[in-house]
UniProtKB/TrEMBL annotation:
Protein's organism: Cytobacillus kochii
Presence of keyword Hydrolase: yes
SUPFAM superfamilies documented for this protein: alpha/beta-Hydrolases
Domain AB hydrolase-1: residue ranges: 22-253
Annotated keywords: Hydrolase
Keyword Hydrolase: yes
Pfam families: Abhydrolase_1
Top-level taxonomy: Bacteria, Bacillati, Bacillota, Bacilli, Bacillales
Protein name according to UniProt: Alpha/beta hydrolase
Amino acid sequence: MLLNGNDFYYEYYPHPTPKQSFVLLHGFLSSSFSFRKLIPLLQKENTVLTIDLPPFGKSGKAKKFIYSYENIASTIILLLEKLSIQQIVMVGHSMGGQICLNIAHQRPDLLEAVVLLCSSSYLPKMPAKYVYASHLPFFSHFVKRYLEKSGVEKNLNNVVYEKEMIDDAMRDGYLEPFLNKDIFYSLARMIRDREGDLDETLLKTINTPCLLIWGEADKVVPLSIGQRLQGDLPHSELHILKQAGHLIPEEKPEEIVAIIEQYLQKKENGGVR
């Protein structure tokens, strides 16, 4: 769907009598592929919408789009309104969690709850030297070389606890976002546009119930960030997954869904503060 000058790719799985409507937002350098194990579990009783955040996955890589978290969040809000989705539970992994928090800050009336899976938080605005460099004509080539140097295999090894789970399907799925060369220009633009994460003052104003689920061995966004978030979000609850890293939607999908279901049931019964 074309929104604010960029194409937003989404997959929509409506349920005739849904308990909830789940909206899934993936992390940085990823796509809806990261929720391939969660979606079948959630759609048994719920409506599920998963979105490729631009410029990732199959979404657009428009050169004039503003890739700030605030603008991405406000554009997703437009999409949710167009689809008339009700009783929304926003689920965000890593960077997607920060987009969820932005949506909760902008339009709390749309949300029943927010589920943060190893959510990125407290990151400052990009240093000025990188913002200035992003204006250089060949900066996108440096971005491409940097990502090629790190490589999909190295990145996957950094985000999972059990290295044995990495297979060709994972390699291919997480490589796909980079097969379109236009993404590197858009990533350069994202460096330029990215504001800092919501600070403590704003986090403390978010009254939407927030469920935090973290991998105990997360090396990308360590558990200490989740514990800090729990302290700053007024209505939050933290669950820790043993023997799990950063990519918990792939590593622990059944446990995640069980925790979410228990949390929402408790919320319905008035047990969530």
